[in-house]
Amino acid sequence: MKVDIGKRLDSWDDLFDFDILEKIRGRVAMLEEFVEPIMAAKYALGIDPDDWSEAAVNRIIDLLKRQKNYIRGYLGISQIVPVIAAGELWVSQIWSGDAATARDEFIKNAGEQHAEEFEYVLPKPMTHRWTDLMVIPRDAKDVEAAYHFIDFLLRPENSARVVKASYYPTPLKRQLLEKYLDPEILQDPTVFPPPEAGLIHLNYTDEMLKAVEKISYAVKG
Question: Measured in whole angstroms, how far is the alpha carbon of residue 125 from the centre of its chain?
Fold first, then answer.
């Protein structure tokens, strides 16, 4: 089934455009990690990313409550990827590397002739970076071995293998990886976002975490 939305969806505003949402009701999902829906609403409303005032929080709550009636739910990646691949979910927040996995699964199901129907978008006007971390527990039995393992992973040739396997970039600069990666991966925006993507870093302050908890409770109950 095809629905004419009338435009390319490329901004956070589109996720909260209720004329659009009415046309694709139930075919939209937001991530269950609730910082993500909250920041989506914040970007759409034009609120400063560091503004967690009562007025800002109330506006975010109101917008997410209104959107909630149109979405499939706040879903985890293990739920999102299969329904995108099956063509049942049309628009969704998603982690970058998982978007590449969903793309491959969608093409596998739908066929190469439908490859252009899948598009990964870094929404306007901005979005934020996210990171996974490696840590050495304070009671680790062999700290030296842990350092050797991290050193191993951060060598360019091994770091490139991680990128190929996961579609996620590593801490190494792209220039250090270029000789080990295919041009297709180097040009893939799900792996290496273009400079114009407007990526920012979030400040996880106590004020922010308290606001996220308040908004989550108000929206999800």
Answer: 15
pLDDT value at residue 130: 80
Show contacts of 55-58: CB within 8 Å, 24+ apart: 56/211, 57/211, 57/214, 57/215
Sheet with 73-75, side-by-side order of all strands: 73-75, 28-31, 91-92
Closest by CA position to 65, among listed 32, 16, 25, 23: 16
pLDDT at 2: 65
Which structure tokens are listed for 37? 């829906």
Q: Counting beta carbons within 10 angstroms of the beta carbon of residue 105, is it exposed (0 to 12), middle (13 to 18) or buried (19 or more)?
A: middle
Whether residue 39 has pLDDT greater than 70:
yes
The Cα 51–Cα 45 span in angstroms is 12
Q: Which domains does the chain have, with CATH numbers?
A: 12-129+201-220 (3.40.190.10), 130-192 (no CATH)
HSE-CB for 135 with a 13 A CA cutoff: 6
Amino acid symbol at 211: A
* Predicted TM-score (pTM) above 0.85: yes
Are the CB atoms for 219 and 35 separated by under 8 Å? no
- Per-residue model confidence as pLDDT tens digits over 90-139: 999 999 889 999 999 999 999 999 999 999 999 999 999 888 888 999 99
> What pLDDT does 165 receive?
92
